[in-house]
Amino acid sequence: MLTRRRRCSIRIITPSSSARPRPKANATTCTIDMWCRRNSANVLPFSVTCIVAGSICHSNTNFSPLLYPIFSSRMSYFALFDGHAGCAAATFACDTFLKKLPQLCEKYSAPSYSGPVLVKNVKKIFVNMFKDVEEDFLVQARSSTPPLKDGSTATLLLLIDDYLYTANLGDTRAVLARKKTNEAGETVYLAMPITVDHTPMKAEEQARIRKAGGFIKDGRVQGVIEISRSIGDFAYKAFGLCAQPDIQKVCLSLADKFVILACDGLWNVFTNDEAVTFVVRKIRAGIHKINDDENRHVSRTNPNFSPLKNALLCSAATDLMKAAIARGSKDNITIILIGFKTAMLDM
């Protein structure tokens, strides 16, 4: 059993102007190492790093916060919110989801936030959280003077034992890297999207918007909003924009290496496969170098948890962010890289 545990809540905010200026390479970097107790053979200890790049402006800021709390030794929570038309919706969602989660977990399970009752009710917890956050923010938005026009994407990841649950609105995407051997006996890494992008270009989204009396122009709802589901954006909710999340569940194994959670500043210039391949190559190269150095200079008692290997996540995320900027990303970029530490060893 791993005994090191840390309870923390971290928020990283990146502003950028409505003109979406090109991010600068001097990003804020935060690295957090976490260990979870092994309550079953399949629970994977993990590390997480967050890289942020953006530009400061004086008005109409967009925020991309990261929340990272631990409520119990069996459950971890990650979330990313990418705001538009201002920071209010992203900030409100960032704070309110964090408050609602423990309340709803306690309501639908034992106070330990664990056990089969909680797992059975995860979907219900997600649905109620999104409903409450949306309703509460719309009340605030409409009662403000002037009314708040802000909106935000929302992507939540909940890790309970070896199950990863996701719920999302908008185009902030999470991609899981899974190792596999193909028919030729070669090792490949599958890039598995574990969230659903909500854009007005998808047929099912268009149908809902048009049924509500809205229209799509230049790939945007009413010619303005480029996502079809969001928190906030109250002026467009009458035209089919909604806050109903897509919810998915993945059973993790040692074949699962890491998750990339990022806003569209990355995905506008990187495909899922390209991003996963980029990170795999960076981690592989780093592990080979570290192993060579440690074999020469260090007597290793437990190489599986070398602090140097943890630093590979930060390096890989930083290089991925810089590569996105080099490819011409004009949006703010937030990348959260969650690496399953024991699973990274055989990359």
TrEMBL record:
Which keywords does the record carry?
Hydrolase, Metal-binding, Protein phosphatase
- What residues does the PPM-type phosphatase domain cover? 62-340
InterPro entries attached to this UniProt entry: PP2C, PP2C_BS, PPM-type-like_dom_sf, PPM-type_phosphatase-like_dom
Note the CDD domains from the entry: PP2Cc
Alphabetized GO MF terms: metal ion binding; protein serine/threonine phosphatase activity
Q: Which family does it belong to?
A: Belongs to the PP2C family.
Protein name (Swiss-Prot/TrEMBL):
PPM-type phosphatase domain-containing protein
